[in-house]
Specification:
The complex is a heterotrimer.
Chain A lengths: L1 H28 L6 H17 L5 H29 L5 H19 L29 E4 L2 E4 H23 L1 H11 L1 H6 L4 H27 L6 H17 L4 H22 L4 H15 L14
Antiparallel strand pairs in A: 1-2
Chain B lengths: L1 H21 L10 E8 L9 H17 L7 E8 L4 H14 L4 E3 L4 H13 L4 E3 L22 E3 L4 H16 L3 E7 L3 H13 L6 E8 L7 H9 L4 E5 L4 H11 L5 E4 L6 H7 L7 E4 L8 H14 L5 H19 L9 H13 L2 E5 L2 E5 L5 E2 L2 E6 L5 E7 L3
Parallel strand pairs in B: 1-2, 1-3, 3-4, 4-5, 6-7, 6-8, 8-9, 9-10
Antiparallel strand pairs in B: 10-14, 11-12, 12-13, 14-15
Chain C lengths: L1 H8 L1 H7 L1 H22 L7 H19 L3 H23 L4 H19 L12 E2 L8 H21 L1 H11 L1 H6 L4 H26 L2 E2 L3 H4 L1 H14 L5 H16 L7 H15 L31
Antiparallel strand pairs in C: 1-2
Helix pairs in contact in C: 1-2, 3-7, 3-10, 3-12, 3-13, 4-5, 4-6, 4-10, 5-10, 7-8, 7-10, 8-10, 12-13
Classes of the chains: A mainly alpha, B alpha/beta, C mainly alpha.
Amino acid sequence: MDQQIVNAIFIGSIYALFAVGYTLVFGVLDILNLAHSAVFMLGAAVTYTLVVSYGQSFWVACVGGILVSALMGLVIEHVCLRPLRRRQAPPISALISTIGLALVILAAVEQGKAGSFFAWLWKDGANAVAFPPSTIPNPTWHVGDLTLEASKVAIIPIAIALMLLLGYVIRYTQVGRGLRAVAENPRAARLMGVDVDRIISLTLVISSALGGLAGILFGVALGGISPYMGRDQVEVRGLAIIVLGGMGSVAGAVVGGYLLALIELLALISLGSSARGGVAFAALFLVLILRPQGLFGTRLRERI
Amino acid sequence: MKRLHLVGLLAVAALVAACGSSGGGAPSYSGKTIKLGAILSLTGAGGVYGPSSSEGMKLAVKQINGSGGVNGATIDLAVEDDQSDKNISSQKAQTFIQQNQVLALLGPTLSNSALTVHPLAETLKTPILAVSTTGIHIVPDCKFPETTPCAYVFRDSLGEETAIPTNIKAYADEAHPKTGVLLVAQDDKFSKDGGTIVQANTDKNGIQLLKTIPFNKGDADLTPYVTQAVQLKPDVIFITSLGQIPAQIMTAARKQGWQGQFLGGNGFNTAAVSKQAAANGKGARSGSAWYLGNTFPSNADFVSAYKAEYSKDPDQFAAQGYTAIKILADSARRANLTFGASAIAGDRDKLRTAMESVNLPSTPLGPFQFTSTHDVKQTVWIIQMDGVGGFTLVKEVKAS
Amino acid sequence: MDFFISLFSDPVGFYASHTLLIGQIGINGIVATSMFLVLYSGQLSLAAPGFMAIGAYVSVLMGLHWHTPGALNMLVAALLAGVVGFLVGLPVLRLRGVFLAIATIGFIEALRLGVILNLPITGEGLGLSNPKADPLGGVNFILPSFIVIVFVIWRLTKGRLGNAWAAIRQDELAALSQGIHVARYKMIAFVISALMAGYAGALEAHLTFNVDPGEGNFGVTRAVQILTFAVLGGSGFVLGPVVGALIITLLPYIFDAAGPYINIVSGIFLIAVIIFRPQGIVGRGGLAIIRPSWWPRRARVSAPTPG
């Protein structure tokens, strides 16, 4: 039972990190970036390739993975979002363009096999792989009858540090003020001299870097790095988390992440594993009906 | 009179002998084309298996066409991608059958798609040979719960109904485990079937199944399930699932200190899984239809030809794809096909009948025959992961 | 490409040998119309796959256990989907925008993972086999249904209901202040769309031999695909989502030459279309093309109207 709680805390940290990126974009842009789960996967995949195919050390590969993810944020902005903003397109079209990009990223990795066009990116096709144990520092400690792996334990301070950093940036820096201004009212922000486009690019870069990092941590702690890891593991859960926590709220995403992990654990224990998946969604449904703004959300935003 | 009879007999014998060496007294098909259609998953989750099947098939086609074809006819194999989507799979099957007028179909890769495509082929009276589906209700009851056997559906991919029990029995006879726990992915036909088969085979081998733990493929974290299993301290953990899940379970179980034996099904049998599980999977056992180092001479030929063509080792799916083409070619040879645009229905029926009596002494899978239910009759290879991305042979269990 | 050649050179033969594809286009067209209706009334509901699941399972189960005729099964299944639509709509229609979308995702996944995969009668993970499926003849039933449905919905949008829905979509509060009973009209749209989706699900089960509870059939993946039909095609006019459905169902054939890269090509296609025509292919508004700043400009009258 205690081991289960420990598991839930680890996985909750990863959920939280992923959800923060999701909620940041929604908060600033009022858009759900459905390419976020693809960036999650890409961060892990690129890091893996750097370690295994290019022989880099894990730390170098990590930096590489995060950089690529951040770069993807720029791609999302320039390819999917900015052209639509320029033409005052209905916001729902941004949903579709990010879906399209997610499809391209996933397909590119899926087709990465030895000898194919994308072999430089990924060599394992549709398979799932894990970091070879020798490449990542991951001692395992046994405390009582708990099994604690360093990689999983490390997630907690990393995640918390990043949240705090992000919170600091948003609250106390010029950039953060710009973010909050654009989130509040982009037109007014522009009138006040804020470079809205730059702020939006920055939002996407930060969000994607966090998403990619979450993917790397997921790959390190749980293995299962495959082209589908974003779509299968976090895409829909990310939605549930930001709803639980309040869309647009960073603190909410963090709390929501741990909350979802705990809800899933409770469902597993009380209802058995078969109902686990359904329960998370039932919980989501209930939250939306009873308290749609989530835990920390303040006002309801509508977007069509 | 007697002499004439004798001369006549000798003449006939000579004729038969001459035909026999070229294979069967069948009419020449020279100048004709035998059209085959393969529906495989080249993209999507099934893309792990599809390309191998395709490569094996294409190698066989190349070899056959390069050495005189089938009684002079060339094989024209078209491969279509079903994107691991059952609707696309059945649409392309229909196109192959009704527009391209293929003689026979191969595939589809995934059991979920087969549930839709096989009954379609049966309805349209076209022989279909499954090359990678190993679940239950593939043959002969493709329209389960209807029990009338499907006459046009065959498979050359050893079913889990044979492989899993053989594996469990082999281990039980050797090590006499007392208890086991089953971890089964319940939202996937292949995995669920495997789980059902395990459940039916534990008691009779003296293993008490302490608990069955179902989970969903989409679950982010399998450690809670593994924890549940490990806490019961079983001798054996059965894993029936596909993709990355077996390796994840093995890794988690070893990390939590469990030392027992992993037993599984086809989900264990690819190099990718062995590689992903690495040292944590060492010793994990499964029953396989094929093994790289198996002792059939025809396999050695196949392996070296495959390596020459594709610069890598073949896997089970390539072997089954290759064998499938051999089966179809041999059946076509004996089927006395008519060819011609309006003859396709009759030719398909003839092929079907010929397939039932196929008897190939040398395929990469060993000697091959269909059972009376169009299933596979062959040796089962009990293999175990070697901890470094490959497999070693434990035991060879001949077909009974 | 010979796919399209045969379409034009021998339409009758093409029809007979592609009944599954044409049937699927019809089914996707019906589901797209269901999506159209909710979007037209200003609701971003992604609940269609859930209703399709209900339609599929109920119609097949009725046929298997009670041996009732196919048409009756489909009708009952669609009605049941409508009833569930009403029950789901009650709590959910207060939500707006993306919140409604997420709530409906919650509904379909809770239904799929929580109910369908755990109820023995549905066959759980194995899915349900439908031995009475009619892959060859089913299309003859699907296409007329499709035409009738599209026509009916089109007429509805022209009448009082349509005006109310358009008003609600534009500005819910303003509509309310004009005396339009917003909640009732939203519910009507939601329930009718549930009926259509349920019916489409039953049709699909009638066409294929197996009802599969996987993610790609009744889960989020399907919901996203249906949304794409509507947005790609344009949700302003009833034929928009139908065109979107047609194109997307045909994508594996159009881009067949891309081989294993088909999904990459499809994704790029999607992005390109939505950027060049954000209002959808059949949407209103001019053809707004991005020009780089150094491209010589011609005087052009175009007024992209929002929404």
